Amino acid sequence: MRRSAAVIGGGVGGLAVAIGLLRAGWSVTVFERATGLPETGTGLGIWPSALRALDQLGVGPVARDRGHAQPGGAMRRPDGSVVATLDVDRIRRRHGEGVLLLSRPVLLGLLAEALPAGTVRFASPVTDVAALADGYDVVVGADGIRSATRVSMFGDRYPLRYAGMTAWRGTVSLELLAGGETWGRGRKFGLTPQGPGMTNWYAAVATRPGYQPPEGDLAALRGWFGDWHDPVPTVLGRLDPAGLLRHDVQFLPALPSYVRGRLVLLGDAAHAMTPDLGQGACQALIDAVVLAQALAAEPDVASALARYDGLRRGPTQRMAAMATWAGRLAQVRRFTGVRDAALRMALAFGPPG
After folding, report:
1. Which residue ranges does UniProt annotate as crossing the membrane (predicted)?
2. pLDDT tens column, 22-79
């Protein structure tokens, strides 16, 4: 008898696990609250381990065709002096290829194309996870940082935690050959090339949760970063206030399990981490492949979910802890020389590829 899965959430992890399960012979339905795929979104760095996950899903060649290799980048001080550089050649030597840059809409689009029509039910929020579970062999919670599936499993015992910074982000009409981050005292500004004529930007400032600049976001950003090195002032000069996104940076404390009964979590629903290592999408892709492989290989769902939990909970929680540590470095206001030395060391080793 063909086994069935409901996937709650049609983001990166949800679409990826749907592909994996369909390839394993499962019947899959994805429930997505949005009315369709997004048309805009920031860029994602896909590291070699996540590229291998895309290969296992059969979409790696398409991803490489639509993305572009991340060029070298640098970590700088506000005056433009270099703290450390990202050695992309070293990454290629170590892992066989470098980091691929893809915008979120492009990644979601190529994943969706690999699914049969009708697999994703848009405009279909799930309001009762327990009731949904009655009709499927497994329910995958891929519903993001504010996961209803996680709440169904654990109640309010694991609330999100504030990471100490408020972030702003968006895209700007500007073409850069290379990106990077600039770190000041308790604040940072980052740039990532997205494609021809477009650049992703983000800024983060150590402040209280829920902070809203009284002078307005754009004026505050220009006040904090307007005298930093080029091209930061150029980016700030081109920002459209209507396109600014502001949010508190939050993370999920370590869960005791990613599984309860027939419910299983992946991606941000399981291990939402701060964006400091750029690993959120990568870990969701790896989660999806490992979960699909476990469900294909094990004779029963319980054994498969236990195998997935054993393989993924430890590595993802360690990655999340590394991201939290990196985020705390950015909040340092004193002894920035010591911080810069730690940053050089962290960038030299980098996250697992």
Report:
1. none
2. 999 999 999 999 999 998 788 888 999 999 999 999 999 999 999 988 877 788 999 9
Cross-strand pairs, 191: 180, 201
Question: For 298-349, how does the pLDDT look when each residue is reduced to its tens digit (9 = 90+)?
Answer: 989 999 999 999 999 999 999 999 999 888 887 877 767 777 777 676 666 5
Instruction: List, for residues 285-301, the tens digit of each pLDDT value.
Output: 999 999 999 999 998 99
Give the Cα separation of 139 and 141 in Å (integer). 6
Whole-prediction pTM = 0.93
Do residues 249 and 328 touch, judged by C-beta distance below 8 A? no
- DSSP E strand boundaries for 185-262: 187-195, 198-206, 245-251, 259-260
Q: For residue 197, give both structure tokens.
A: 């004529």
Angle at 83 between CA 185 and CA 277, to 5 degrees: 75
Residues whose CB falls within 8 Å of the CB of residue 301, separated by 6 or more in sequence, listed in order: 3, 137, 138, 262, 295
Block residue for tokens 């030597």:
93
Cβ(30)–Cβ(119) below 8 Å: yes
The helix (run of H) or strand (run of E) holding residue 118 is: none
d(CA 46, CA 101): 6
Start-to-end C-alpha separation, the chain:
38
For the chain, domains (ranges, CATH) are 4-68+104-160+251-327 (3.50.50.60)
Element (H, E) at 265: strand 263-265
pLDDT in tens, 115-134: 999 999 999 999 999 999 99
CA 112 from centroid of its chain's CA atoms: 18
Residue 6: its H or E element: strand 4-8
